[in-house]
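Same chain as my last thread, 298 residues:
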Amino acid sequence: MTFVAPPWAVDGPNLVIEADNMAVLPHLPAEAFGLIYIDPPFNTGRTRKRQSISVVQSPRGSRIGFQGRSYETVKGQLTAYDDVFADYWAFLEPRLHQAWRLLAADGTLYLHLDYREVHYAKVLLDALFGRESFINEIIWAYDYGARTKSRWPAKHDNILVYVKNPSHYVFNADAVDREPYMAPGLVTPEKAARGKLPTDVWWHTIVSPTGKEKTGYATQKPQGILRRIIQASSQEDDWVLDFFAGSGTTGAVASELGRRFVMVDNNPQATATMRRRLASQEGVRPVEFVIGGDTWSV
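reply #2:
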């Protein structure tokens, strides 16, 4: 099936597109999105068919990476070391090049991974975006699920944060939800009442299997995590992009916060989940769904 690019416009409706994201991303205009959040499939040992890709390096990216080496040098060394990661990175790399192209001049990328891949991805993204563009590694810590007794149980995800221009990017510290001080007696009553800005370690439960937020989609992420990201790194009316959209949490929270969104996923179950979710949410701006050659609005 040939993908037909939808007519995207800065003043157009929100978009949900069911397609391979690499068929969609090249059709979106450069520097259109203030925030990109992506939660790609974690590399849990599944091998993918190797791709032969040709990419155009960004003006800022792929210059100097780890210990002064070029992006291509770093990539060659890491992918030669780990064949399974090489397959995963061949899948992810062209999508990250598109993310860089699509980010606004003051835009921010949040890349959500787990402990298996984040150390490789950090080194490669330093070389791809430039080390100076790295802002944070956020640790999302939770306490749920089975526990191994052969090592420390892995109960966190990693979110790498990169900006397009480290001298000029959006970070709204005052808009972010506050946290209570761990030792409120050590600060003034006024500070204790207001709470503190979260650090780069976020304690937040997963989506409860019985909670009202649950959509039934297996990889659904909590609204609280996306709310903090969107509050901090975008402005009202900005466009937010998620091209591994899953259950649609990014779009649901973006709409709630007065942002606009484009979400892409190639899984029909994801599209169906997003359609139900957005149709039942109050105050959502018009959303256009694009599946193959069909388009409809909710």
